[in-house]
Amino acid sequence: MKKLIFTIIILISLSAAVFSQEASEADTSENPWKEIGQQGMKALKETGKFFKDAGIEIGSTVKESVKSAVASEKCYGEWVYKGKSTKTVISCNSDGTMLIEQKTGLETQYWKGVYTVALNTITFSVKESGTKTLFSSKSEQADENWLLLYTVQDDEVSMKIISSQIPADKDGTKFSKGIIFTKK
What we know:
Elements (H helix, E strand, L loop, with lengths): L1 H73 L2 E6 L3 E7 L4 E8 L2 E12 L2 E12 L4 E16 L5 E5 L16 E5 L1
Antiparallel strand pairs: 1-2, 1-8, 2-3, 3-4, 4-5, 5-6, 6-7, 7-8
């Protein structure tokens, strides 16, 4: 009986040693796979963060574009300021073209170009300027950028324009002080 118990103890010890060695070999062979798995998880997390950040950026860009589109729609149309003898007309067209005219009697001074709107600022890229009278006209190519700060009033039929680039009219009106235009 003692021999049987002794033999069982030895067999248990040997099997424990063999099992322990197999387990450590399995750990060694699993470590590279474990490391690869951890690297893959890290890469997936970083990719997810990248796409999340990109999505937020795209979302804010789209939101700003929508705001800009709504803001530009508010400035569409013909806006008129009547001074003592000069009438200034600003035309913001939905196709992105813009015209500013200052009419005094039979003479009209004008600036043509394209515009963009960002929040409450119109950037007017002047491409042509000139003068027209009843009998003659003179125009020249231009390459200027004018900034016009604008605020469409709550009634949406009047708009305040502030710009130091719009030339003073024949009456001496300076647009840098802020002038109220009325929608035609």
